[in-house]
Amino acid sequence: MPYEGPLGSTELFLVRHGASADAVEGEDFELIEGQGDPPLSDIGREQAELVCERLARLTFDALYVTTLRRTVETAAPLIRLTGLAPRIEPDLREVFLGEWEAGLFRQKVVDADPVAVQMLTEERWDVVPGAESTEAFSTRIRGAIERIAMSHPGARVVAFSHGAAIGEALALATGSRPFAFLMSDNTAIARLVLTPERWILRGFNDTVHLTS
Question: What pTM was estimated for this model as a whole?
Fold first, then answer.
């Protein structure tokens, strides 16, 4: 028989945004409350159409985005197809990267900057100068997920979020290492079943819509 969550549980689909525009040397992304806010690239918009066409086959009781435009742009096709009104959950936004915002983070990782290597080895964001602490990041992601669950008991909800944020949510659900679920693909779907007592991981990095 198909799996059914505990009575009153919330089924949460977490969707990573589509591919965002490339950073261009000398051109910083616009900042929203200190965080880089690039739009989707052409590929990202194609990915958004594909994942939303797939999600539109299901019925959702609520749809969430963050304050950053790449989640809003990724959710747009599903909003168009279903008429769902987007709700904003600011605490599902990406990890704050301090001095490495506005596109610099990507370049530091590509260049194997020693601090980037330390960050990945120690699985801590706060080795980056000015970045959000592991504890603060974990606390806000937990709070966001708990608010969604409390607002929608017994419902199915979709939330468009970010790679590190989704990774943190899944690490909290499983008790894994902090970066164990970090490398999800753009528009990958993860699924959680949420109860007041526990979070149950039902799927990770599902990208069948990009390959079928």
Answer: 0.94
